[in-house]
Amino acid sequence: MDATSGKTEQEWRETLTPEQYAVLREKGTERPFTGKYVHSKQDGIYRCAACGAELFSSDTKFESGSGWPSFTEPVNRANVNLHEDRSHGMLRTEVTCKNCGSHLGHVFDDGPGPTGQRYCINSVSLELEPADHKPLR
Ligand code: FE
User: What is the pLDDT of residues 15-44, one digit of tens each?
Assistant: First the structure.
């Protein structure tokens, strides 16, 4: 049972695609330049593909050349958790969804904006809610 989401791994397996499960729940990484949002310039909010939490805005997305969607900052820093990650012989900072604990990607200190950060996020961990699909008031 995941402490933050209340979902069991079996429930995650049933609700996510195998590719989503491998990245979100097993901290996998999609191959660079294969994700659907790498070059996306559509306006909107990128939500967690597992739980729907708001994570990143298209306003902060930039072309990093890394092969993964890249953002200078989250919509709200409180919506993500950062963790030291020493896997694969590297020291990196892992980014997870605060709401459901799912793996999103990593953040690096070589970003182009005022934050100096580059959130390097798997497309498969995200679901874009296009701006023009937002309900009108
Ligand atoms: Fe989530």
Answer: 999 999 999 999 999 999 999 999 999 999
- Give distance in angstroms: CA of 15 to centre of ligand 1: 13
CA 57/CA 47 separation, integer angstroms: 9
> What residue spans of 4-124 are helical by DSSP H?
9-15, 18-24
pLDDT tens, residue by residue, 85-112: 999 999 999 999 999 999 999 999 999 9
Q: CA 51, CA 39: separation in Å to the nearest integer?
A: 23
Domain ranges of the chain: 9-130
70-71 and 118-121 beta bridge pairing: antiparallel
First to last CA, the chain: 38
Tell if the pTM clears 0.85, that is, is over it.
yes
| Residue 28 CA to ligand 1 centre (angstroms) | 15
Q: Of 48, 97, 100, 120, which residue is the catalytic one? A: 120
- Class of the CATH-defined domain 9-130: mainly beta
Q: Strand 44-48 and strand 118-121: pairing?
A: unpaired
